[in-house]
Specification:
By secondary structure, the chain is mainly alpha-helical. It has helices at 2-15, 26-37, 47-70, 76-89, 95-107, 111-122, 130-159, 161-172, 177-181, 183-211, 214-228, 235-248, 266-293. The chain has one domain.
Length: 297
C-alpha cells in the first residue's frame, strides 16, 4: 500500500503544479505565533519543550484521524488521508518545475525572476557571477531533493502519514519567526532536523552513487569526511553535495584554467542534476518495490 500511495502522489504532483500554493507553509508561522500568545509555561515555548509542544497537536490529530479512518470502508478513507498528507509534505515547491521556470527566466533575461527563483532554491542570496550561480544551483538541487522528496518518502515509509508530516513540519521550524526571538528554540529545531536527516540523506547520497558515476561519488563521499567537512553547515548537506557532484562528475564539466563551462552551457549542469534526481528516484522506487514484495511494507 505504501508504494502505491507514493506512486500516486509522485504522479499527482505532475498534474497539480498550478495548485502548489495550497501547500505553502506560511500557516505554520501563524500557528506558531498563536501558540506563543497562549499563557503557557516558558518551558513549553522554548527549547526542547517548545519544539515538542508545537509539533504534538498537528501530529496527534493526523495520528488519530489515521487510526479512525483505517478501520472504515476497507481502509480506503485512511489511504486517501495518507495521500493528502504525503502530497502536502512534498515540496512545498516542485523542484523540476522551478528549474524549468529558471531556464525560461534566463532565456528572457528576466533578472528579477532569476534571482527570486535562485534565492528560493539556494535558501540565500544567489551569487551574481554566472558560473558560481550555476554551481550554487546544482549543489542546492542535490541538497533540496532530499529535503523536498527523499526525506519525506523515507519518514512516510517508517511512520506513515505522521512521519511525512513530522519531517515537513520539522524542516519548517528553523525558519519560524519564533526562532528570531528564542535562541534555544532555533538550536533545538536545527538539531531535530539534523537527526531526521541523518539516515535519509545518506540513503539519498547512496542512490546518487548508484544512479551516477559510482566511483566518483564514493570519492566525493570520502573527501567530505577526510577534508571538506568544515565547508558545510551540516553533515547531511556535505554528504549530499560532495557525493552528488561526484556522481555528476561536475569537476570534469568545468575547464580548470578558465573556470568556464563547455559548449553544453550552464543549463546542461542544472538539467544533469535534475536527471540524477529522477534516476535516483527510480532507484528508490525499485528498492521500495522489492522491500514491499519481501513484506517489509
Amino acid at each position: 500500500m505504501s508504494l502505491s500511495i507514493i506512486l500516486i502522489c509522485l504522479l499527482a504532483e505532475r498534474f497539480l503544479l498550478e495548485y502548489q500554493h495550497l501547500r505553502q507553509t506560511r500557516w505554520i508561522n501563524e500557528y506558531s505565533d498563536w501558540f506563543e500568545r497562549q499563557e503557557l509555561p516558558h518551558w513549553m515555548l522554548n527549547g526542547f519543550g517548545g519544539v515538542v509542544s508545537l509539533l504534538l497537536p498537528p501530529l496527534l490529530t493526523i495520528a488519530l484521524l489515521q487510526q479512525l479512518l483505517d478501520e472504515r470502508l476497507l481502509g480506503i478513507p485512511g489511504a486517501l488521508l495518507a495521500i493528502l498528507v504525503l502530497l502536502f509534505s512534498f515540496g512545498p515547491r516542485d523542484l523540476d518545475h522551478q528549474i524549468r521556470q529558471l531556464h525560461d527566466a534566463r532565456e528572457r533575461h528576466d533578472g528579477e525572476l532569476t534571482t527570486e527563483i535562485g534565492r528560493d532554491i539556494i535558501g540565500d542570496e544567489p551569487p551574481s557571477d554566472e558560473t558560481r550561480y550555476s554551481h550554487a544551483i546544482v549543489e542546492s538541487i542535490l541538497e533540496q531533493a532530499n529535503r523536498r522528496i527523499f526525506g519525506v518518502i523515507f519518514w512516510f515509509l517508517v511512520l506513515g502519514p505522521v512521519g511525512a508530516a513530522l519531517y515537513r513540519l520539522a524542516t519548517c521550524l528553523p525558519n519560524l519567526r519564533t526562532t528570531a526571538r528564542e535562541a534555544d528554540f532555533l538550536h533545538t529545531s536545527r538539531q531535530l532536523v539534523a537527526i531526521l536527516d541523518w539516515i535519509p540523506a545518506r540513503l539519498t547520497a547512496a542512490s546518487y552513487a548508484i544512479a551516477g558515476s559510482f566511483e566518483d561519488a564514493l570519492y566525493g563521499w570520502r573527501s567530505y569526511h577526510e577534508s571538506r567537512f568544515n565547508e558545510f553547515s551540516s553533515s547531511a548537506s556535505g554528504i549530499l553535495i560532495c557525493t552528488g557532484t561526484g556522481a555528476l562528475r561536475l569537476s570534469t564539466l568545468v575547464d580548470s584554467d578558465t573556470g568556464t563551462h563547455p559548449t553544453e552551457g550552464q543549463r546542461y549542469l542544472m538539467d544533469a542534476a535534475m536527471g540524477l534526481i529522477w534516476r535516483s528516484l527510480v532507484v528508490w522506487i525499485i528498492l521500495i518495490g522489492l522491500l514491499t514484495l519481501a513484506g517489509w511494507f
